[in-house]
Amino acid sequence: MLRLHMISGSAGFARFAFSLVAVLAATLILCPLVSADPCPEESPLQNYTGGGSVVCPCFVAGEEAGAVLQAPTEHYPIEILRVGIGWGSMYGGTFESLEQAIHVYDGGLPNPGSPIFTLEGPVLNDGYVNEFNLEPVPGEITIDSGPFTVTLEFLNDNAGDPYAPSMVHDGNGCQAGKNVVYAIPGGWYSACALGVTGDWVVYAVYRQVNCGAGVDEKIIVSGGSAVLLRPEPNPFSSETRFEFVLGRTEQVRLSVYDIEGKRVATLVEGEFGPGTHTATWSGRSAEGAPLASGIYFAEVRTGSARSVQRVVLSR
Question: Domain span at residue 74?
Answer without folding.
Answer: 4-208
